[in-house]
Structures are given as C-alpha cells and as structure tokens.
Amino acid sequence: MGSPPRTAIPAPPRGFRDILPTEARELRAIERALSDSFTAYGYVPLEPPMVERADSESVLAGDRLMRFLDRDGDLVVLRPDITTAVARLVAQRYHDATGALRLAYFAPVFREQPAMLGAEREYDQAGVELVGPSGPLADAEVLALLAESLSRCGLRGTSIEVGHVGVVRRLFDDLTVDAREVVFADLRRGDRVGAFTHARGAGMGDAAIERARAVLAARGRDIESVDVEGVTELREVIHLARELHQGEPLWGVPNLSLMPELPYYTGVVFEALHPESGFPIATGGRYDLLLGAFGAPRPATGFAINVPRLHLALFASGWRPSRERTLVSLIPGRDPREAARLAARLRSKGVAVAIGAVAEPAGVTVVSGEAIDGERLRLQGGRVVACDDLARELA
Amino acid sequence: MRPLRFALAQGVLLNDALAALRAIGLDVSRVDGGRQLVVRSGDVEYLLARPSDTATYVERGAADLGIVGKDVLMESGARLLELVDLRFGACRFVVAAPKDALERSLDEYRHLGSLEVATKYPRVAEEHFRHRGIAVEIVKVAGSAEVAPQVGLADWIVDLVATGATLAANGLAVVEEIAASTARLVVNPSAYHLRRQEIAPLVERLAKWAECR
Q: What pLDDT is recorded for position B133?
C-alpha cells in the first residue's frame, strides 16, 4: 500500500464499489462463458431499463428497494431483480405470443441493505426466463442450463438441489386458506418452529405434523418413501435434466427442504450450492403466478445467478481466467513517428501494443521494449528483435 | 472440508445449551466459557460468541449451526433455518409502563399523538407498534431500559423479561406481551442442505431431547 492521498477522497456510497481491471477482466470471462451457454440453449439477450416505476409489482418489501423521486415527481425504483421486469415486459410486448419465449440477461440489480452487514447494494445477476411452456421438459431445460452454465464457467463441486413448492403446499392442504398462508410465510422465512406451532394451533393433527416434518427433511434417497403428489414429477424433471446435461454422475439432488424466500414460486424450485459459499450461488424455479400479477397469466420458469458469489466460489477454488495475449509496452525512441509506425505494424500482426509504460496490467503479461526504428525494437535485457519475429513469438 | 462448526450464545443460555449437547452425546467438556472461544472436540468445532453475533455467524455460513434465543433472532432479522424449539431460556418481550401512570400516558397519547418508548430492541419494538397502529418514538438504549420512565427519558419501555422481578422493582407493570421466546437450534440453510448427513442426526436428537423435557 502506498501513502494515502493528501486530501481524503470520499469512497463510493456504502454497498457500492469500484470493480478494478483485474476483477473486471475475470467478470467478463464469466459473462462470456454464461452467455455462450445461454445461446447454446436458444436464449436471446434482453435488456430492461435500470429504473422501473415504484408502483409496479415488486418481489421485495419496500425497505429492501432503492427508491427516489425523479424530476417529474414520480416515485421510481432501481430494479431489485430482472425477473419482475421481464414479467412486465412479456405482459406488455408479448401478450399475444403463443410459443416459447427464451430470454437471457446479465445485468446489475440494486437492493437496499442495512448498514454494517458488509452487504452490496449493487451486484450483477445473470439468468434466463423460459415463458410459455410448462411441464417436466421445460423445468428440466432450465435446470440443465443452470448446471451447464456453472460448469462451463469452470465451477466444480457445485450441488444443485431440486425441490417442489407444490409438494410442500400439499402437506398443509387440510388447513384453511388463511392458516396455510401464515404457515407458508413462516416456512419462507425459514421458521420451521413457528410454522408447526401455527399449524398445530390451526387444528393440524400430530400425525399430519409428523408427516410434514419428515417430508420437509427429505433429501436424496429419502424422497423415494415420500408419497405426496408432485414427487414423481420432481424425479422426472431431474432425470430429464440429466439427459440434457451430462454433468457429474447423478447431479441434481432431490430436496424437499427447499423453500424459496419469494412467494411467487409454484412448482419445481432449485438452488446451486457450493461449499465455498454460505449463501446459494443461484436460485430458480417455476413461477406461474408472477405474470398473472401483470394481467397476463402464463407459465414461466427461470433462474438467477448471483455473479459475485459465483466469482468468489470460482476464485476460492483456484480458478483464474484463461490467459489473454501478451501486451507489448512500447517505449518510443527519439523519433515518435517511428514508434507510431512500429505500433501500427505490430497491431496489424495481431499483437496488442500500449505505447509507453503500463501501470495496470490487470493480470496480463507485459513485454516491454524500446522502439529503435519502424522495424525493430530492443526488448528489456537488450535483445533486438524485428517486428515480424516478435509477432510470431507472441502468437 | 472443515469440521462442522457449532456457534453457542454466551450468557444465560450457555449452561443449558451445553447440558443439551451433553445429553445427546456430544463431548463439550472443553467448552467452558473461558478464554478459548474456538474449541475443537471430535468432529465438531464449537464457537462461543455474543448472542447477536451467533445469529450473524450462522446466517453468513461462518458457523453451520447455532443455539440462540428467539429474542435475538427476532431483533437481528437474520435469515436462517429455525429447526428446533429447545424449550429452555424462556422469556417474553413485553411493553411495560409505570404502574401508576398508565392512564396518564394513554391520555397523553390521545393528546400528543405519540409515545416515547425506550428499548434495547428497536426492531422488535418498532414492528410491534407498527402492527398495532400506534405511533411511537423509539429511543434506543444500550442497557437498563427499565429506568427510562423513572427519569423521564421515555413513557414506556419494551424489554425482555423472565420473571418480571426487575420490572416490579422499578415500579413498572406489563401493558402487553409482544412475543414469547425460548432457545432455538438454528442452521445455515446452505449447510443444512450440503451437510445434511452430519446435521440431520443432531437435529433429530435435539428435537427428541427437547420433547422429553
């Protein structure tokens, strides 16, 4: 660390940060791998605006949104996710479309966070939405695409856990609608103690509670003994997904403990977990209710990858982006025109050239040399090399 | 992979928590609440932390499991899996007011439209009064909220009580109960999924132990 600047320059606001070139280069490598995967499954890119109207449907409570008044006096919100924007956009622009819409994105989202938690208020999300088709093959497609995207980025040791909100819902079928909503709100918060206390209070019997408790703990082989409608569908989705993406053997773990925080999920849901991350790297699933909130009900499923978490997990497991071509730092000699000509010539041969010293190589190998004339340069160490020979050596 | 990490809240819950863990067959003999805060014993690493930090450790996955009071979970808002009610460490969040001045403060509320409430638990207090539709000013204190009404810092308090003796000693009476609290077994959701084989037996044994109490 060097000496601090003489006058203090304020850092960016809490929860926002500069992404410096080395990291930015890594993120671009991740973005390329993800978008290649999305393209291979027929997904096309989409870019909704950064700002939405605050009275629009939202997945998060008001205090998790970054809202402000614009000059027209309208309350607007920095988008907290992309899925909601896609739902709005599909309802507006594609309400007559009958086929399958396959949409992909890689974009920053904004969420208000309490102070002192070290939490980011802006981060990149990458994901896809499949609008239109329902049924196991559609669920399997999105699940397989998540597995494939992560593995194409180079992430190993991911566990993809697959659950089913419909199965969990059926466990509480005997409760009244109101009681069931209370129990579900508890479950979404992770409060199993509260959920079962409320269920018992609403008249659920001991046997039914014991059964629900067992189902909510079922993972892997355990689910074979679970006899609730929807379990067969869950297993079929996983089997189809394994056909679509040949990952590690038996990837995709059935897990009925999965209960996403957001209320709009209706069917198969999933999370990508990694031992290096205390939080899921990606979450997704079927959300048939969200488009209905915009007045155009249609089945939909998708996932969102939390890019910083993916990056951290990759980094912690030793991943580095593939090497970029070497950069030549060309120090001009006495005649700047000769140096300019030499740079142009090197670049025409496919060599990256920066004129002068390089302060931030961002992890790229730098070869430094001084221009002798329009043809030759003297590398550090004294070796004189012709332009064409250097291009060949670096190719 | 690192050993399973179990965070335990220091303070009033610790002895009961250790007794529970002993009862289900874990060796906690070297966890004594002394200076050593991270203790490895067999396949489990124990981490002693302040109660509110316990929730933070588990939420962020720095610890896989924890034993912590529901009161702490309510105030922290941490997102984690609450799996077992361990039934010890019972206490209640209550709203309390000076015994002789309840009518007067209600009158004042009708008159001025707002009450001042001193508390160590601003999140719980704020949510409770928002839910009840009562306008209050929360005054956050770091300790001993029960003296606030006596010295004119606030009209009412929101505090955690076990027996109510402290309230009575300070001339306060319970206006209403907000929520009951006991110790909970909490688990980081990702760890619960990824390390189910190690965690599930502990959950089961602790649930059985709690039920038999």
A: 85
Q: Where are the beta strands (DSSP E) in chain A?
A: 44-45, 51-53, 66-69, 75-78, 101-110, 122-131, 159-164, 253-254, 268-273, 282-286, 300-306, 327-331, 352-355, 366-371, 376-379, 384-386
Task: Give the count of Cβ contacts less than 8 A between chain A and B.
Answer: 54
Distance CA A43, CA A36 (A): 10
Q: Coil, strand, or helix at residue B147? A: helix
| Tens-place pLDDT, residues B93-148 | 999 988 877 777 777 777 677 788 999 999 999 999 988 888 888 999 998 888 88
Amino acid at A81: D
The least confident of A146-160, A330-344, B136-150 is B136-150
B169 — contact with chain A (CB < 8 Å)?
no
User: Which tokens go with B84?
Assistant: 């077992």
What's the CA gap between B4 and B14, in Å, rounded? 19
Strand arrangement, sheet containing A300-306: A44-45, A101-110, A122-131, A300-306, A282-286, A268-273, A159-164, A253-254
| Cα A130 to Cα A301: distance, rounded to the nearest angstrom | 5
Inter-chain touch B193–A278, beta carbons under 8 Å: no
**Quick one: average pLDDT of B5-29?**
93
Is pLDDT of A289 > 90? no
CA closest to B61 among chain A residues: A278
Q: Are the C-beta atoms of residues A82 and A306 closer than 8 Å to each other?
A: no
Rounded Cα gap, residues B62 and B48, in angstroms? 12
Judge: B83–A192 Cβ closer than 8 Å, yes or no: yes
Instruction: Tell me if B196 sits within 8 A of B66, measured CB to CB.
Output: no
Read off the pLDDT of residues A206-263 as tens digits, 9 standing for 90 and up: 999 999 999 999 999 999 999 899 999 999 999 999 999 998 888 999 999 999 988 8
> Hey, what are A167's tokens?
């199965």
pLDDT average, residue stretch A54-76: 84
**Looking at this predicted complex, what is its ipTM?**
0.88
Q: How far is B82 from chain A (nearest CA, A)?
A: 5
pLDDT grade for A204, boundaries at 50, 70 and 90: very high
CA distance B57 to chain A (A): 10
End-to-end CA distance of chain B: 35
Q: How far apart are CA A126 and CA A304, in angstroms?
A: 6
Query: How many residues are listed for chain B in this entry?
Result: 213
For residue A60, what is the DSSP state?
S
Q: Taken in order A45, A48, A49, A51, is the CA torsion positive or negative?
A: negative
- The one-character DSSP state at B134 is -
Distance from C-alpha of A220 to C-alpha of A251, rounded to nearest angstrom = 11
Q: How far is A125 from chain B (nearest CA, A)?
A: 19
Cα–chain center distance at A29 = 14
A289: left (phi over 0), alpha (psi -120 to 50) or beta: alpha
- The residue with greater pLDDT, B204 or B213, is B204
Q: A193, B82: Cβ pair inside 8 Å? A: yes
Residues A308-320: pLDDT tens digits?
999 999 999 888 8
